[in-house]
Amino acid sequence: MAFLEERDPGKDGTAFEGTQVTGVGTASGGAPARDQDTAFRELPHQSRWVLEALAGHYGPRTWYQRNEPLVELIQTILAQHTSDLNAERAFAELWKTFGGWEAIARSEVGEIEEAIRSGGLARQKAPRIKAVLQEVEARRGGFDLDFLKQVSFEEALEWLTSLNGVGPKTARCVLLFSLGFPCIPVDTHVHRVARRLALIGEKTTAEAAHRILEDAVGPEDAYRFHVYLIEHGRQVCKAPRPRCQLCPLQEACPSRVP
Questions:
Q1: For residues 30 and 56, what is the distance between their CA atoms, to the nearest angstrom?
Q2: Do residues 88 and 31 both lie within one domain?
Q3: Which of 254, 236, 233 is closest to 244 using CA atoms?
Q4: Please, are residues 217 and 240 in contact by the beta-carbon 8 Å criterion?
């Protein structure tokens, strides 16, 4: 699988290109008609329209390496059921307390729990972090995960998800944000927005949605699609009350609230 090309991050942590991508839809430039249900079943076509419409609304996004792989893995564990900001603060405190992976792996679970308490669910996350670090060290003889860039996406995904407590979404966060594999982690925002747009079925699980969306979106667009759906889910397509009047997709969205 091809890797995404790195760019320098912008001020907010997202790299910006020089020009803004405009939305596309019908031949006249508008959105697909609301009664064209077939458009929502033709996923590659519909995902392309969604991508370009959101690009026109939010501006360009270009991949950059957010963290080293093991940092991304531990921060993603810390981010479960809390905000990225809380996870970053908890990780900073974890690193300040121990100063390195080896020290964390050899510490008591209670010490890790105390260090990450600000991130929430510390009692559940502390033993998971310790176990993951110990397993990585046992398998690799150290804590460097850069070897994953030398194998295929499927091999890298299998290796990460074989770690106890690492699921497909967490693994894909590492593969996308650290190693540049073009994949789509499906978090709560991506899952919600994709369901409302009928890109996936109403009963499609987040785990099943990974493959469906990755098949519908080309590798070159995987990163942009992921970050746009997260941004849209946070700002406009909120749960439980979407702000449909502000949505650039409202003309074609089958879930639009009048």
A1: 12
A2: no
A3: 236
A4: no
pLDDT score for 6? 54
Nearest to 210 by CA among 197, 226, 198: 226
Domain CATH number, residue 209: 1.10.1670.10
Q: What is the pTM (predicted TM-score) of this model?
A: 0.84
Range of the domain at 171: 69-177
**Which residues does the chain have with pLDDT short of 50?**
7-41
Number of Cβ within a 10 Å radius of residue 249: 23
Report whether 102 contacts 143 (CB < 8 A).
yes
Residues 119 and 124: their CA atoms lie apart, in Å, by 11
Q: CATH number for the domain including 85?
A: 1.10.340.30
Which spans in 116-255 are helix H? 122-140, 153-161, 168-177, 188-196, 206-216, 222-235
The phi, psi pair for 121, rounded to 5°, reads: 55, 40
User: Which of 154, 177, 200 is a domain's end point?
Assistant: 177
Among residues 109, 103, 107, 143, the alpha carbon closest in space to that of 126 is found at 109
Are 70 and 101 spatial neighbours (Cβ–Cβ below 8 Å)?
Answer: yes
